[in-house]
Amino acid sequence: MRTTNETTFQTVPRQPGTLMARRKRVSWKHLPYGEQVDVVEGGQLLGPGTVDATTPDGSIVWVVIHGVGGRRMLHQNDDMQLEIIKPLDSAAELRTSPARRKG
What we know:
Blueprint: E1 6-9, E2 25-27, E3 36-41, E4 44-54, E5 60-65, E6 71-75, E7 80-84
Parallel strand pairs: 1-7
Antiparallel strand pairs: 1-2, 3-4, 3-7, 4-5, 5-6
């Protein structure tokens, strides 16, 4: 199943292994570094994670999945969705991803 690189907004915490309902979506390229997300694969929650980096076109995002170890690269063609746990509010929190920083 091909999916698009979209993020779903979530307001209710979920438990790993539960089915997820789809909600409003945004492109992965709009996910800032440090965004807290739930990682969903095949409609089932893998667990919470933190956005570590994204490509400028949003086709790839790296997420540190808590409790799994290390970071995982997700591609837009993977059967994966990211659900925002709590959108970042302040300008200080909206940092640029290390992959996008210009040296």
